[in-house]
Amino acid sequence: MLELPEEMGLIAIAVRQTQGKGRGGNVWLSPVGCALSTLHITIPLHSNLGQRIPFIQHLVSLAVVESVRSIPGYEEIDLRVKWPNDIYYSDLMKLGGVLVNSTLIETTFHVLIGFGFNVNNSNPTICINDLITKFNKEQGTKLKALSADCLIARTVMVLERLIDIFQEKGPNGVLPSYYKYWVHGGKQVRLHNEEGPIAWIVGIDDYGFLQVHEEGKGVESVHPDGNSFDMLRNLIVPKH
């Protein structure tokens, strides 16, 4: 990838993975039916995104969701983003994830973006075509099933647009769309443990870190690499 011209992109697509990786050394299950891809992009250090590299995972998560929900007729398919790097059905079930690795060489970030999301495989959780089938039954519509190839292509196309917007306008150019699709708006959580202080999620800051408002303490930012958000217990906890 280091020998390619800077203006040229590189993408690897797999039908199946046998050693998929998740955050923190987790294994990512990758049966046939997943959209599986690693994308190489370059970001100048001295640019809006180059100064806020953690934001890339949010842009990719948003691109996956918009790859479906920007198709006419599919706007109400309940696909959402979960901070910092997951794709969810409503706030109920994970069906995709993003893993970003970046290397700074001179004044250019070389970024490898791995993303995988369930398109046509109902196991191990649920998939996008399950959501479309469910929507058709409930709404009496006849939306067609989508293919992994189509959604990978759409995700990359949307991501290019989001990066261009971010480079021009910074975080405020993309955050309204991100908040439109995220699962956390106004949610109450406890910090550190089940008996910890109550806080409310208020958004993400200019660097992509989660912002929480704790009573009497104001707004604080939570770093994604040091914390995990437990959807089931509503905790923001330090990782060990």
UniProtKB/TrEMBL annotation:
It comes from the Eukaryota. Residues 1-167 form the BPL/LPL catalytic domain. Pfam families: BPL_C (PF02237), BPL_LplA_LipB (PF03099). Keywords: Ligase. Gene3D superfamilies: Bira Bifunctional Protein, Domain 2. InterPro entries: aa-tRNA-synth_II/BPL/LPL, Biotin_CoA_COase_ligase, BPL_C, BPL_LPL_catalytic. The keyword Ligase applies. Coiled coil: none annotated. PROSITE patterns: BPL_LPL_CATALYTIC. NCBIfam families: birA_ligase. Belongs to the biotin--protein ligase family. This is BPL/LPL catalytic domain-containing protein. It comes from Limosa lapponica baueri.
